[in-house]
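Student: I would love a firmer grasp of how sequence relates to backbone shape in proteins. Thank you; the sequence and its tokens follow:
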Amino acid sequence: MIRRIGVITRDCAGVNAALRSVVRTAASHGVEVYGVIKGYDGLIDGVLRLLDRRSVSGIINLGGTILKSARSERFLREEGQKKALKTIEENKLDGLVVIGGNGSLTGAHVLASQYGIKVIGVPATIDNDVNGVDRCLGADTAVNVALDALDKIRDTATSLERIFVVEVMGRDCGYLAMKVALAGGCEEVILPEQDFDMTEICREIRTGNAQGKVSWIIIVAEGKARAQDVATAISLLTGLETRIAVLGHIQRGGRPTAIDRLLGAKLGNAAVEALLAGETDKCVSLKCDESIELIPLSVAIQPKKLVFEPEYRLLKVLS
């Protein structure tokens, strides 16, 4: 019997929408919800907050998470996990909803598989790299935030006739870089999943410049290269003036798009319903914007193989 659940969150757009959905869905079933402050560290330290319908009023349009978030090195160790388990037992939590990316979902899998806690995960990461999930919370907003910044950079690149190298997030995954580059009409994108040839990139720039092309925008995923290094190489090999822009954590913030608000509402609801149905050690996923599927967390936390070659070829045709 599920009478009281806890919620753990990571920060990205759409998480508050999912949290609101979790709380209000649970309330409709007479289930109490406790928000865990600052992620797994809060679970270890026993920092919980009772949430009701009014607690989540007016948060659907907010970025980040009202529960705060933090990476927890302590939870990686057995001592930290045992303290988290003690918090769950002392607060009589019958289950957990964990909203986050691979790290958060890995923690959820540990609690479920090693300690028998009923846990359902909600995928939330701007990299959109949770295995088996079509769309993660926060990814659509991050693309749009980065794209808005890119549009402004293009105004300057065109006016001053310069090359701009724009660095976006993406330590191991090029999702954000590829989508922004294609949607932003960029000339080149450098991805973690693909090798790149700086000599060839510079050859294309020299050829285009000789034909009268006066500005370029090159997107770089932070996990593959640094904007400064790429810009320095381009200036050295082409003799053309090059500038950089590092978008950084601006991409994690911002008001969630309609897509992320709707996704948060659906996934939060599905997570609670799954717990009430007796499911555990699963991740909720919206397939084809229609049906909810449950994916084993053991599968969800595996590396996701994304193929960007078709979109990359399209980018080169259109550039």
In short: Residues 108 and 119 are 6 Å apart (CA to CA).
